[in-house]
Amino acid sequence: MAQFDELRALSEDEVVTHSYVRDVPLSGGKTLALITLDNGRDHTRPSTLGPLTLLELGDVLAAQKARAAAGEIAAVAVTGKPFILAAGADLSKVGDIPNKAVAKQLAQLGHQTLGALSELGVPSFVFINGLALGGGLEIGLNADYRTVDRNVAAIALPEVFLGMIPGWGGAWLLPNLIGVENALKVIVENPLKNNRTLKGQDAFDLGIADTIFDSVNFLEDSITWADGVVSGSIKVKRANEPGKIERAVKWDVAVGIARKSLETKIGTVAKSPYVALELIKAAKNTDRATGFAAEDEALAELVSGDQFRASIYAFNLVQKRAKRPAGTPDKALAKPVTKVGVIGAGLMASQFALLFVRRLKVPVVITDLDQARVDKGVAYIHNEIDALLDKRRISPDEANRLTALVTGTTDKADFADCDWVIEAVFEELEVKQAVFAEVEKYISETAVLATNTSSLSVEQIGA
After folding, report:
1. Sheet strands (E) in 30-143
2. Is 245 found in the same domain as 101?
3. Is residue 170 part of a domain?
4. What CATH number is attached to the domain comprising 370?
């Protein structure tokens, strides 16, 4: 595939997730080709989908298509190593893409490889046995049928959170599988709620998976179920698949409501959520090829843009907790943070406050234009802490401590003893400049001022 030579050149040190094939007997003398994705590492290094991985998987799927045409196999299934299907695209490689043309190649390669699952000439299955994020979930969406392990901890399309869109079929396939409202939740709403993920049961309830099995015999039960589908003894019904009424009446209304919600919560500067909305809207009445071509263009445009590069830097710095990300200051410059101030009490500001109090476990104070907004922001944070307690992700004692650490104020003098202050106000230069000018009157000379801007000049904000 000479058209992907530039991607190959970027992938010399890729940790390749290999595609291992073994034949599994089915009833009636038939055979299922089972492909297992495995990067040779343990569960602490999830399998990812870089260019070399996709090229290898594409070759393996092409070989299975030839076998199907020869009558050697009656079905193809894909699963992953223990606890992991795939954690999506190899972001270390995506961040190295030099221009829009190469970014488009990555989108096209993903579509070409994963899209082959629907063109094998025999039924295709994906057994979601573990973590399935981004491109990992899109492997499943491109197949004809899906099973899911009841105990899978995380299934998601987090691309919007990173400044991208689900670009290997997800933006077109998901709304046409589970309906527009459910797809909006998975593609747009969840990523913007601290990157919320689905459990195995959630994926089944939404209709992402056709059936669900317990972990103890997951693979065996999935194969038996696939055998039933191939033989015709099992008929798959999809309750959430959109019909004519949803497409004619609900679709555009749901997208419009989602757009207004985004404008209220995050403004209009961030590109990826709105691009995702446009792709979902178009999925109502376009065919697969048209939808995939639109994803190619959208993904190429976003990946080659500044917002995505900033998001990837932040991802590497914070989410991956890299030991030494490029551009980080010397550790000798670090100093303790004993109190954090957040300017703003909207959704983004409140999520920042929640992040800081959970990670640092120090006092966090938020502020806004009036007490009503401050109270609303504090209530949101306290409610999120309560939700963590309900899910047993934190203990009652920790919930009480975290709740007590979060306060709100309209008096900027309460920021005087903050070591770190970040603004998350409206994305206008003059507004951010005014906020910094006001808070500088109260904070110490050694406090760090930070901005949450996604497109404005930091130098101009601090001028």
Report:
1. 31-38, 75-80, 84-86, 124-128, 131-133
2. yes
3. yes
4. 3.40.50.720
Give the integer Cα–Cα distance in Å for 80 and 127.
Answer: 8
pLDDT band at 318 (very low <50, low <70, confident <90, very high): low
Residue ending a domain, choose from 262, 289, 306: 306
pLDDT at 324: 52
Same domain for 283 and 136, yes or no, is: yes
Domain range for 139:
2-306
Name beta bridge partners: 24: 32
Asked whether residue 326 is domain-assigned, the answer is no
- Using CB atoms within 10 A of its CB, is residue 244 exposed (0-12), middle (13-18) or buried (19+)? exposed
Helix axes 306-314, 288-303, angle to 10 degrees: 70
Nearest to 191 by CA among 158, 165, 213: 158
pLDDT above 50 for 244: yes
Same domain, 370 and 246: no
Q: Mean pLDDT across the chain, nearest whole number?
A: 92
For residue 273, what are its two tokens? 């959520």
The number of CA neighbours under 13 Å toward the Cβ of 12 is 3
- Mean pLDDT over residues 139-148, rounded? 98
DSSP code at position 400? H
Mean pLDDT of 261-265: 92
3-state secondary structure of 416: coil
Helix (H) or strand (E) holding 347: helix 347-360
Total domains in the chain come to: 2
Residue 315 domain-assigned (yes or no): no
The residue among 19, 185, 4, 198 whose CA lies nearest residue 109 is 4
Asked if 171 contacts 279 with a C-beta cutoff of 8 angstroms, the reply is yes
- 3 state SS of 122: coil
- Within this chain, do residues 162 and 265 fall inside the same structural domain, yes or no? yes
List Cβ neighbours of 318 (8 Å cut-off, separation of 6 or more). Answer: none
pLDDT digits (tens, 9 = 90+) for 438-457: 999 999 989 999 998 876 77
Q: How far is CA 27 from the centre of its chain?
A: 38
Q: Which of 267, 289, 306 is the last residue of a domain?
A: 306
Q: Residue 116 belongs to a domain with what CATH number?
A: 3.90.226.10
Span between the terminal Cα atoms of the chain, in Å: 51
Percentage with pLDDT > 70 across the chain? 95
The answer to whether residue 205 is domain-embedded is yes
Predicted local confidence at residue 8, as pLDDT: 85
Which of 337, 343, 338 lies closest to 411 in space, CA to CA?
Answer: 343
